[in-house]
Specification:
Elements lengths: L7 E5 L5 E5 L6 E3 L6 H11 L18 H9 L2 H4 L3 H16 L13 H10 L4 H20 L26 H10 L5 H12 L3 H4 L7 E2 L2 E5 L10 E5 L2 H8 L19 H14 L7 H14 L4 H8 L4 H25 L25
Antiparallel strand pairs: 1-2, 2-3, 4-5, 5-6
Helix pairs in contact: 2-4, 4-6, 5-6, 8-10, 8-12, 12-13, 12-14
Length: about 375
């Protein structure tokens, strides 16, 4: 006979195993299974009575001063709560996986050394970005520990990041943009998505919220999604004629330019998945929506824009990332400029040999 007790929750781990918990107000308590077994009922009664003697395995117990205990303190802190909800989700997931690895969550956090983190990092060497994300999450955890006087060292600060792809996401070429435009003509949502990304240089989290209400006197005015709770970046970008023509020719939503087939705004992940399909339909498997942000910065660099001018469009607070985005374009622009000067018809003064134009005193000789 099936029955269901109050406050019992089920959770399926990544291996497909069903875990049982008692959860009521306070932290959840692991219950032995299966449901209805003598062990389950004994654990349930003890948990319901608030007994501290509940028999649980390591997955349901937080050992004081353990790595898992430090994570719990961190998740409850203002330092963690100030993060963007998506960042919270990602970081919590990374740290929980760290806890589950070989029982590391129950080990004293004060005994974690740089060499231990390096071993974990090297195990993920085939996924350098994921490995670096793990190192970064542990760094932030121990920064919390330092700030709140739980510890006096940050072992993760001494662990180097792995070298990933130095260029990051693939930056679209002009030929790839033209190929996409051939597959998705003006008037389609796919073409509108391309135009918004290319002519604003924004991240997909910003593209999905832009709408008519953000246009004021021909300018897009909005606050970027990334860092909006800690270091908000307010943007004002002109709507150039090429973008306005695409917007005018495309059906849009009431609150956002980009909408799903059900006329609802996209989520950031949903838009990324949809754009992936549009790229595949155009035969551009190596292209992504973030690559258009890089392409926008590169095109500005090719037009001779300074890093500060490019940053005013992309919203970057430092030039480090912009420099990486525009490295190839800047090299091309400098090379073109240098060769143009070289091939320019030289003036009589420019044709004077350098050595002949300098006297021993170090000044230019005067004509006699």
């Amino acid at each position: 006979m099936k029955f269901r007790l109050k406050y019992v929750a089920e959770d399926v781990d990544r291996h497909g195993n069903v875990r049982l918990y008692y959860r009521r107000n306070g932290p959840k308590v692991r219950l032995r299974g299966p449901t209805g077994s003598p062990e389950f009922l004994a654990d349930y009664r003890a948990a319901a009575a608030g007994s501290k003697e509940v028999k649980t395995d390591k997955a349901g117990r937080v050992v004081p001063k353990s790595f898992r205990w430090l994570c719990v303190q961190y998740f409850q802190s203002a330092m963690f709560q100030e993060l963007d909800p998506r960042t919270q989700k990602v970081r919590r997931s990374i740290l929980e996986r760290f806890c589950e690895h070989k029982g590391d969550g129950d080990k004293p956090f004060a005994q974690l050394l740089p060499r231990h983190i390096r071993v974990r990092r090297d195990e993920m060497a085939d996924r350098p970005e994921a490995a670096n994300g793990m190192v970064k999450a542990v760094r932030q955890l121990y920064r919390y520990a330092l700030r709140y006087d739980h510890h006096d060292d940050n072992p993760a600060e001494k662990v180097e990041y792995l070298k990933g792809n130095p260029d990051g996401f693939h930056s679209w070429t002009l030929a790839e943009i033209e190929k996409y435009e051939e597959a998705h003509p003006i008037g389609t949502p796919a073409r509108l998505a391309l135009a918004l990304a290319l002519y604003t240089g924004q991240r997909r989290a910003d593209l999905v919220v832009l709408g008519k209400q953000h246009v004021r006197d021909g300018w897009l005015t909005f606050t970027q999604h990334k860092g909006r709770n800690r270091k908000p970046v307010r943007m004002e970008i002109p709507v150039i004629p090429a973008l306005q023509r695409v917007i005018d020719a495309t059906p849009t939503g009431d609150l956002t330019f980009l909408v799903t087939a059900f006329n609802r705004p996209f989520t950031s992940n949903g838009f990324g998945n949809r754009f992936r399909k549009w790229c595949d339909e155009a035969g551009l498997q190596n292209c992504s929506v973030h690559g258009l942000r890089k392409a926008a910065a590169a095109r500005l660099a090719e037009q001779g824009c300074t890093e500060q001018e490019i940053m005013s469009i992309t919203g970057h607070r430092t030039s480090k990332e912009v420099t990486r985005y525009t490295r190839a374009a800047s090299q091309k622009t400098r090379a073109e400029s240098a060769l143009r000067r070289l091939s320019r018809e030289q003036t009589p003064d420019e044709s004077v040999p350098l050595l002949a134009a300098v006297v021993p005193g170090g000044t230019k000789s005067q004509p006699k």
